[in-house]
Amino acid sequence: DFEASFIRLIDKVTNGSRIEINQTGTSLYYQPGLLYGGSLEHECSPSRSIGYYLEGLLCLAPFMKHPLKIVLRGVTNDQVDPSVDVLKATALPLLKKFGIDGESLEIKINRRGMPPNGGGEIVFSCPVRKVLQPIQFTDPGKIKRIRGTAYSVRVSPQMANRMVESARSILNKFLPDIYIYTDHMKGASSGKSPGFGMCLTAETINGTILSAELASNPQGQGAAVLPEELGQNCAKLLLEEVYRGGCVDSTNQSLALLLMTLGQRDVSKVLLGPLSPYTIEFLRHLRSFFQIMFKIETKTPEEEHMGGEKVLMTCVGVGFSNLSKTIR
Amino acid sequence: MEEKEKKKHRVKHSGPKAEKKRKRYLNELGIGDEENVRKRNPKAFTVQSAVRMARTFHRTQDLKTKKHHIPVVDRTPLEPPPVVVVVVGPPKVGKSTVIKCLIKNFTRQKLVEIRGPVTIVSGKKRRLTIIECGCDINTMIDLAKVADLVLMLIDASFGFEMETFEFLNICQVHGFPKIMGVLTHLDTFKNNKQLKKTKKKLKHRFWTEVYPGAKLFYLSGMVHGEYQKQEIHNLGRFISVMKFRPLTWQTSHPYVLADRMEELTNPEDVRINPKCDRKISLYGYLRGAHLKNKSQIHMPGVGDFTVSDVSFLPDPCALPEQQKKRSLNEKEKLVYAPLSGVGGIVYDKDAVYIDLGGSHAHEKEEEEVRPNHELVQSLISTHSAIDVKMASSKVSLFMDSRPLGSEDVGQEFVMPKEERQIDLKTGRVRRKALFEEEEKENDDVVSDDEEEAAASEDGSDGDDEDDAEEESDRELLGEKVPVGRAKRLKTELVKEEPVNELPAFADSDDDLEMSSEGEEGKTAPEENEMEEDDDEEEEEEDEQRTYENESSDSELEAASKRVAESKQYEINSEDTEMRPRISDHRLKRKAVLATDSGNCTAEEASESDVENFSLNEGDDEEGSHDELEVEESSRKGFPRTQAKKADGISQAKLKAIEDEDDDVENLLKEEEEYEEKIDFSADTTGALKWKEDLTQKAAQAFLRQQRSTPNLRKLVYGTAAEDEDHESEDAGDELGGLFRVSRPDKASKQKANALDCSKFLIEKPQDWNLEEVMSSIRDCFVTGKWEDDKDAAKLLEEDEELYGDFEDLETGVVHKGKRAAEGDESGSEEEEEEDGKMSKPEPEEEEKKQERLDKKRKLKEMFDAEYDEGDATYFDDLKEEMHKQAQLNRAEFEDQDDETRVQYEGFRPGMYVRIEIENVPCEFVLNFDPHYPIILGGLGNSEGNVGYVQLRLKKHRWYKKILKTRDPLILSLGWRRFQTIPMFYIEDHNGRHRLLKYTPQHMHCGATFWGPITPQGTGFLAVQSVSGTTPDFRIAATGVVLDLDKSITIVKKLKLTGFPFKIFKNTCFIKGMFNSQLEVAKFEGAAIRTVSGIRGQIKKALRAPVGAFRATFEDKLLMSDIVFVRTWYPVSIPTFYNPVTSLLKPAGEKDSWSGMKTTGQLRHERGIKLKQNKDSLYKPIVREKRHFNKLHIPKALQKALPFKNKPKNLEKKGKTPKDQWRPAVIREPHEKKISALLSALSTVNNYKIRKAKVKHREQLKEYLKVKQKEDEQKFKRQKEAKKKIYRILGQREKKRQMSSLKGSSKGEKSM
Prior knowledge:
The complex is a heterodimer. By secondary structure, chain A is of the alpha+beta class. Chain A is about 30% helix and about 30% strand. Chain A folds into three domains: about 1-130, RNA 3'-terminal phosphate cyclase domain (UDP-n-acetylglucosamine1-carboxyvinyl-transferase, Chain, Alpha-beta prism); about 145-245, RNA 3'-terminal phosphate cyclase, insert domain (Dihydrodipicolinate Reductase, domain 2, 2-Layer Sandwich); about 250-315. In chain B, about 45% of the residues lie in helices and about 15% in strands. Chains A and B meet through helix 5, helix 7, strand 15 and strand 16 of A and helix 25, helix 26, helix 27, helix 29 and helix 35 of B.
């Protein structure tokens, strides 16, 4: 269902792709077309959050023919996928590192929608680039500040404050520079279902951004969650993320690796935390598609107070250039 | 007379003498020097005009920046591939002579015939690949794409020819390589002056084509059919110091200029179907970018292929290793030209050629020295590296371990010779004949490597043979070898056991590697065997083997201790490393074989293998023969192994060893299981569906897996990439089964069940409330402790210290006491050291010195950084950045060996690679002609696709015709040459792409065609046909790719016409334009127009006649008006893409490829006259005189008009009534006379009067003249008089004034 929606989305951004699904829905034939871009709208299936669709788009958007500007509607935050807030906070700075920047690179949350009914709306726009820059991103640096958003829709606005309080209580032991915004959406911009949650980001002096998030259980599923508990857990998740470390957030590992692969024929390096299973699978796909292998080295931090072990990934780009972009 | 003869002395005004004189003169004056001028006259050198100065400055800056290129990352490898030198020119200009002379110049070897590329070492750091380019336009296009340097030969006695210009234009389009002109045939000029003139003329023309100042070489006369030595030497110098600017296309695509081609098709297939698709391997230096295995390539002239296998071989024409000396010695001046049959080192992984010396360069060819002798030698002293062997070029090694029959070997000797000696045409004929004969004499196959390939392709038989041999070898040495290792294994196993729930994936895998390493070691004897395979006699080989075995036996017996033996073995293995490289896949396969066979006893294995073998080869004719051989060998193997075992038993530990060996086997199995387990666990991590009890452990295991590096790599990529190699090579091979991890399957399985989500959830979060856990990440925050080199306080300290030290340096005094205050950690350490080494002051002193030097350097760096920052521009920064990147690129994988490096970054340029390609059309092999270059151009991702490509195109100004839309055109774009049907268009102001029927004469236009996707900005050229020769310029158009798309945007104008059938005032009904109401509905609101220019709009469809509609106009229409609507109809582009397969044509006809013909050609050939539309013929326009009706003005209007404009329609005079008629006067004769006289008189009178008048007028004129004169005089006189009067008056006035002044002064005085 969400897959179908995703395929439709892909169909929208491309030109000339052919998609055939057999009667029973067990086999899919996909002949890729040309990434076209432009101004689009898409209704995402509420069974997955927008983050699921957005992750795919983030990989494709820099290589469109025309700059992409798309309105996605559906669930903005849920418990499964990385939420839009997290992607906004982590993926966009990551894209900037690869030379994809400009004022048009942004994700804007117009409405928040929580599962099960969704009703959220975001605008994602991304400029196009011909080639990507290689990155050398091996020093994460030290964390200088922690930011975050605590959101609540169709519940008491007090919830957000309670979450903030509890999260701060944990994080304050490490760093004084913490600011967590409370974001209470009302009326039309609050979607169709109630819920609350928070996402936290830790920014280092070198511009690395690590993130963690949690959301409440959807209405009518599971036990109710106390906002204090959620806040604390979220803060702990962030600490866990910090423990894992690396220059790229664990959700964006695959994105970083993909963009490294698609770079010019230069060496790119990035330091990651432990590879997630998703990333490992992704690496295998990269090998089967691009015949590219990463040099994987484990790095143990010299001092003991620097968190867990890291992985240094090195690769030579395949020399990909955006063929669909028109030159004048 | 004598005086006149003498010449006067002429002072020199120019020239050195005059200059000298002037100087002397100036010096005498004391103002001689130039600098003095500045001093003497500083004003002359000041700024005259600020504006002009600003302008000049601006201009110089402009020029400076214009010189800049966009900096690119320098991706040239450390050991670059040979420079491709293309020698091009019209026929009979001396191309091959130049090549021969150059080769002779560099290598002191004389090649008789040049075929294909010739690679030579030209200097310590440079190699050249010289290739000749014929005048076939296909060749010219292909070679222009790969050339680094073009030697453009020009016949000076003739001048430039079309080929020269064509080639220049091709070069321009495909990136401009360096071009050097060479003028030949200069000795045909008898007149020196004429020669000079011609040189100058040609030079200037050359400069306009290339760039002003382009190098042009003059090769004056020939000596004994060669050019003069000195001139060639100079030319060589120039070539070998030439610098190249990287070309965009070349640096972004891998390409290989193949210098060797082998066919690997199974001869059986060829026998069954002589036209079957072939499998070939091509050899050459990789250039440009990194090449990845399984990537797409294009062979210009053949088509697109997927690389089925790539491997790198040792460089056949390597650069000398040590760079110390100034020049190369004779040994290092290598030449490599397999197609021309020189160089002799024809060897690779599954074929061997022993060069019998076609050229006299290799006098050392020893026929007597049998290779087995060589082998013994090599056994005794295996120190000689492969390079040395190559240099001596006596033997090339045979990598495949398949024993060769003597006939085979004989064949193998013949083949290359044949190829070498027979000249082009006959050679081709021979080749053909051979292929046809194949059916008859099956085993006398053309080239042995073909057979080899067939053998390895057959898979089982080749491998079985391997088996048969390996078994024995294994038994010989192998068993003992892994002893030590096995022990280690065991210990590791023990370690693991306590954690037995955990999958011991990592370690076990390592073990696997080790064991395989051990087995690699075992290949040592195998290699020996391989060499034996070179032998012509099987028996000799056997003897060899026994000898070898005996030796090893004796060794074994002598060595009572295992350790000693293993050491010995190590020595052996070292030796093997010294030996020629075995291509990796073979090695691995062997490893597999060995491990596999380890499960059963050797005898069993070999027997079963033999059985297999017989099964497989049963029907084959050769089969029986080969089988016999193998059986023999295996039989020989058995006794030996038995004997071995007996020996072993006598030794105490053998049993144990065997047990351990078994252990190893078991371990292997266990590993398998473990691996699977791990996969499973990985699956579950992916799935996030943990069995509850397993959760914790698995999570830990997962983390554990990630801990250590090699494991991580294996975790990600399966058991490295080696396994994949296996699978690809031994596809369908039962032996590969053991190692078939089949990652993809599992991966897909895992994928299917999982919720794909990039979030990395933590299964067991740490308890962040605990203090120690918290402290584990304490330093990740800015509030934590900093590292030494970044800590602000430390930095500050260091700076201070630096400063202090600087003072020290200045004064030149080293304060001993200060050292303590320096505060550096190292300093303090040294302090301690100092205490320890009080007795030895010298090293301390040295250290100090070192320290000082360090600091000095640091300071200098700082200063440099500061100083340079001032004039660092954006350009410099960019350049710096690129430079950094380039260095990183070089450094990153430098320390790894080639095998792993290849996995990471692909095959890097500069490597000598062997590329296997399958499904090549048989014509390519059958009609192979080494004179035509074979290029393998790598394609970037998605460059293998086809789509619509938009170009900007301009007809070449030298091309005589214009190009027609929808006529097929041959384009050269990227690597490809192909025929396609372009549609020309022009972009209107509103961005519409309007179809053009023909290209504009002197203007760019757009073109779209259906063809291969090529990156934007790539240049292309078009020719109408590649066949035949025309005296005209062949390049029809050039241009650049603009855009790639999947849809088309070209439209053509379509006018729909209709006729009014009912006219109201400004509205009318129009029919005949559309056929249905629906169509009308689509065009509602569209603008329409009549031919006469009345504009209107379509309003709504009518019901009555189908397709009629109501329309309004700005004026009333006439029934005779034609109404039309302008519409734009999208044009479909014919999806026609036909690669030019010129290399598939039979020899001698390679330049006669002809594809689709144009309609014009067809009509011309068939004599079909186009039936023209009568209406579109041009006829003289006959315009009938138009009669207008009379203007009718209404009465009311007439009345209102002013009189002037009133129509003056006077009534016609009616006939005068009769009564008003006047009677005619009839004169009498008398009266007539009178009247005649009167008229005569009056005429006379008139004449008189006229005469008098004229006279009077003349008189008056005269008078006026006189009068004027008088007047003038009078005026003069008056003027004179007036002058006089005025003067007098003036004087008088003056006097009066004077007097009055005087008077006043007097008066004053008097006063």
